[in-house]
Amino acid sequence: MTVIELCRRAKGLSGVQLSGNLNLSRVVVSKIETGHETWPKLRRDISEMLGVDETVLFDETGRAKTIPETELLQLIMKAN
Q1: DSSP 51
Q2: What pTM value is reported for the model?
């Protein structure tokens, strides 16, 4: 899972809602969430929409950062 997807879900947004808020197709948002390269303005827009710093969401190549399953499980356990 990417950090973008985790943050989107934490805010209660579906992929369709996020894509609508960004004026993008759902396909583009899906590609971003699965690690396709992005461009600077889009990274800023996503960052602002989710309220999370770009460096948390994207790596140095502009691709969405992922969360290892072990970390994700730890986050879920802490939340419950």
Answers
A1: T
A2: 0.85
> Which residue segment(s) compose the domain that 51 sits in?
3-79
CATH number at residue 31: 1.10.260.40
* C-beta of residue 44 within 8 angstroms of C-beta of residue 13: no
- How many structural domains is the chain composed of? 1
Q: What pLDDT digit, counting tens, does each position of 17-28 carry?
A: 999 999 999 999
Alpha-carbon gap, residue 37 to 13, rounded angstroms: 22
Tell me if residue 2 falls in helix, strand or coil: strand
SS3 content of the chain, % helix, strand, coil (to 5): 60, 5, 35
Residue 38's contacts (CB-CB under 8 Å, 6 or more residues apart) are 32, 46, 58, 62, 63, 64
